[in-house]
Amino acid sequence: MGTRSHPNNLFSCEPNRSKLLSQLWQHQINNRYISEDAIAALATEHNLSAIEVAGVASFYHFFHRQPAGRHTIYINNSIIAELKGYERIREAFERETGARLGSVDPTGTFGLFETPCIGLSDQEPAALIDFFPFTNLNAIKVKEIIRKIKEGRAVHEIADSPPANIRFLPPNDRTLFFAPYTRGEVIRKLANLTPEEVIEQLRIGELAGRGGAFFPTWKKWSTCRTFPESPKFIVCNADEGEPGTFKDRVLLQHQPGSVIEGMITAGFAVGAAYGIIYLRGEYRWMLPTVEEEIDQFYQAGLLGKNIAGINGFHFDLRLEVGAGAYVCGEETALLESMEGKRGEPRTKWFYPVEKGYLQLPTVVNNVETFAAATRLLQFGSFEYLKRGIPGSAGTKLISVSGDCQRPGLYEIEWGITVAELLEICGAEDPFFIQVSGPSGECISIKEKFRRISMLDLLAQKDIRCGGSFMIFNRQRDLVHILLNFCSFFKHESCGVCTPCRAGNFILQRKLEKISHGLADRNDLQDLRNWGNIMKSTSRCGLGKTASNSVLHAVDKFQDYFAKRFAEVDHSIYRQIDEHAAIAEYERYKP
Question: Which of 66, 157, 287, 396 suits 211 as a labelling partner, its CA being 20 to 30 A distant?
């Protein structure tokens, strides 16, 4: 039987500073803000300057330096929320609480703020109150919620329990992720396997990471295994911050065991003794569910010492909770955050498998990847290969939202076409589809026969999907959608590198110019130029992908943008060009 290690305690090999994020959370939850006295006390405890601790606290969206109300409300302002009634909900909250957006009401009871996507795009409009979810909001429901809170009802008692909304599974019992699951089935198989055999099963099954890059999982695990440094860590990236994505939330909420089992299996394969789940701050309400599952694993002897009777196989697991920073979805920024620092991406001299958490070998995979590893070993690699298409084995979880009749979670086999998915979800007059979130690819309905796969074909016949599928009909304002994306990236940029910091601001201003009918083709070309500069020169993946949706849109919807250009006399510009050409000739003529 394993010995329980409380998820909020550090492992003995971790430095004290790694407690800093959770300590800041304690001050925020207990006092509703982080005071100067708290900053000073933490600085003394960790032998840091007060400025450095304040710098960490200021980096994260959910940490406040001023009182944020006895009840803190965050309204989701993602594009799906906007289209489903964000403005009406904001007005209702302001009316019922007496607080203006971005402030606290005069009594100090309610703090009202907005935040990007909270992982509930299939149930919008939605909000978090004291980090508990409230979904499918309308003015009447908001009024009732605030009335109950004013009467003294505990927020957790009146909060919603978001349903899984699993809308589609592969027919004929071909589901992988939602097949029957027995805790410990895969772990007990490890007694008859070597670490190399586990990795070989992943190689045969062609398991690739499900965070968007699709890097072969077996290569990552195999590489980490080769490094002799000890201890090693397995980190589950549950910082699912891409707007429109909620697949990892469903897995952790309704089937956390398969995720935990995948982490334990990774620990066996690479020789790691410790695992950490980094749960995004917006999912704090799921802490009891995940903690309870971890407890069950310890009680069953599936965590701790000599797991499942396998002599010498030790693995402990704890939780870390993020505090609202999209950039922490980037693996090195996540590791910095876990170390009690600002979540700024590292310069990649080394990959995490060599120097990751605490500069020790670390495997970082996302929630879906670990669950997929569990299922692959449960079914066997050859059974796993029967699903999907050549080069894209298995199934994929996709979060579908927007203008469709059945928003929710879809498990599809790789190779399905966009048209088939649109039909299954009941898409309503689809025109603009954003795949893999704002940092992914936008496509038009003309591309509906492209397949969803992991293949990266030069001919672009296939399309990669990291997990989000947002549908917009012909009545939606494309420029407004892109402005929402740009505003999000501008806010979430860590600000370290100029291309991302300045580029997102410039893209937003150019789009505003188009929105106001003041732009011409030169502004469209500027969007392309700045977007490409960001892609080629930004320091991390956020900046490199932030312009993706804009770049794709201006190329695929040229007629749409042409209609948004300003009505100007272009002959004036031709005259100016002619005068400029003459002046240039006079300057350089022989």
Answer: 287
Least confident span in 199-213, 291-305, 351-365: 199-213
Nearest in space to 105 (alpha carbons), one of 62, 131, 67, 158: 67
Name which of 185, 274, 312, 329 is nearest 7 in CA terms.
Answer: 274
Full set of structural domains in the chain with CATH: 71-162 (3.40.30.10), 168-386 (3.40.50.11540), 389-473 (3.10.20.600), 478-562 (1.20.1440.230)
Q: Report the candidate in 366, 338, 324 with the shortest Cα–Cα distance to residue 237.
A: 366
The pLDDT tens digits for 447-492 are: 999 999 987 654 457 888 888 999 999 999 999 999 999 999 999 8
DSSP 146: H
The overall average pLDDT reported for the chain is 92
CA distances from 229 to 346, 347, 358, 505 (A): 20, 21, 12, 43
φ/ψ of residue 539, rounded to 5:
-75, -35
Length of the chain: 590
Contact criterion met (CB below 8 Å) for 439 and 545:
yes
Q: For residue 545, give the H/E element and its range.
A: helix 541-545
